[in-house]
Each structure stands twice: as C-alpha cells, then as structure tokens.
Design goal:
This protein is an alpha/beta fold and 254 residues long. The chain has one domain: Ribonuclease Z/Hydroxyacylglutathione hydrolase-like (Metallo-beta-lactamase, Chain A). Helices cover 25% and strands 28% of the residues. The protein has eight helices and 14 strands.
C-alpha cells in the first residue's frame, strides 16, 4: 500500500493544504486508487499526481466540513473535462448523496446533468464492514462537532486507519487495533480541544492500538509553526513504533 499526503493542514492554514491522502494498492482485481477526503485544496493537489481521468476508483468523505469535501465539485468537473467514463464510488456518512449533490449544484449549477460517468454513493454503516474494490471498509464514529467517521481499510495483509477529524473514541480505538498505519488528526500538541485530537493523545491512541506507524496531520497552523520543535521531539522520542509528521507530497509505502 502506498500513501501520498496531498495535504496535511487544517481548514484555515495559509501554508499547508487541507488534509487529504491518496491511497494506492494492488489487489486480485488489479491496482486501485482511493482518495481520503477532498477539501478546498485537495482536487488541485490530486491532479499534481496523475493525468489519468480514470485513475481514481473511490472517494471517501469522513464528514461534512468544507475542508474535507468542498473540493469534490472541482474534482468531478476536471474529471468530466478530461472525458472520464469509469464509474466512481463515493463513500461516507449518512446524507452523503444529498450533501454532495447540493455542493455540486451550488458550485456549478446544471453541471451534474452533464456528467458522463456514474457516481455510486455508498453510505457506510458503522455496524458492518463493506467489501469494495478489493478492500474491506469499516467505519466508527469519533468525537467531533458534527458526525465524523474514522475509516479502516484492509487489503490482503495490509491495514490502514484514517481518523478524519475528531478525538479518539472507544469505537475508533477498537477499529484501529493492530492496523499497520494510523493517520490521525491532532489539532494541538496537548491539552483539551473540543472535538479534536492532540499529538500526545494520538501517541497514546497509536500505542494502545498497537500500530507500526503513526502519521500526525491537521495540526493547528500556529501550533505547528510555533511548537514544531516540541512536536518533532515528542515524535522522535517514540521507540515502540514509528511516528511521523508528514509534509505535503510526502509518500509512505509498506
């Protein structure tokens, strides 16, 4: 499995693009490409890494805050301009189709009728896994200001957990247990931030989940700039697993 961090920032960061991750993996069905979240900046960042309109197989939306889904209309617009024909699976929480269609209609009125490729909207149930595109998809709700889902992806013997936004919950910890890689948001270094995680909390989460690698993303812009040494020192001190603070366009493969 290969991860490309298209962005690692929070909603208002003027320097770092919104958190979004491209996942590539091979299955018995061939190579697959997924995009995890698609905020304001994600679509343009995505096209830096492919010029194939049919490359993307599925799009995951963790929750309905703009820095996680407002890039969908322009992602679809460019796909249409580039003559995409392959169906696209779009997965996320309850209300997915209604919310994304409303966003498309606001961004580009009348555009939806012009799409020449099918969109398959799938609302992921937190009670049962879904088999799609060679992956097993499982979701659990974390603690955020609106309903937000953490996602576990399994393919063959590889596993990934992506938090979206939100503090860890008992449900997301159970879901992430023994995942090889965890990507988790951490708005602050430590302390309490309602609806968000912390770097220290992510380390505890990863340790309890017994993961191999933790990637910390979505750190608040002033916190990342002003306390970068503290954050990297804390991550570098970890000995029982690998802890990283990715930059945009970083690639991680295992």
């Amino acid at each position: 499995m290969q991860l490309t961090f298209l962005g690692v920032g929070e909603a208002c960061d003027e320097s770092l693009p919104n958190t979004a991750v491209m996942v590539r993996a091979n299955s018995g069905q061939g190579p697959r490409s997924l995009l995890l979240d698609c905020g304001f900046t994600a679509a343009c960042r995505y096209w830096r890494h492919t010029d194939d309109a049919d490359d993307l197989d599925a799009l995951w939306i963790s929750h309905f805050h703009g820095d996680h889904f407002f890039g969908v209309p322009v992602l679809l617009l460019r796909s249409w301009e580039m003559k995409r024909r392959k169906p696209l699976s779009v997965l996320g929480p309850t209300g997915l189709q209604k919310t994304l269609e409303a966003a498309m209609d606001l961004a580009y009125p009348g555009f939806r009728a012009k799409l020449e490729f099918p969109l398959e909207f799938i609302e992921l149930d937190t009670d049962k896994p879904l088999a799609l595109l060679g992956f097993t998809w499982q979701a659990a709700e974390n603690q955020h200001s609106i309903r937000s889902l953490g996602l576990r992806l399994d393919i063959d013997d590889q596993s990934l957990f992506y938090s979206g936004d939100g503090r860890p919950s008992r449900e997301t910890l159970a879901l992430a247990r023994h995942c090889q890689v965890i990507i988790h948001e951490a708005f602050r270094l430590s302390g309490e931030t309602p609806g968000h995680g912390t770097v220290q909390g992510c380390l505890d989460f990863a340790r309890n989940a017994r993961c191999e690698t933790l990637a910390v993303v979505h750190v608040q812009r002033d916190e990342r700039r002003g306390r970068l040494r503290e954050i990297t020192k804390l991550l570098d001190a970890v000995r029982d697993f690998h802890a990283i603070l990715p930059e945009p366009d970083d690639v991680y493969q295992w």
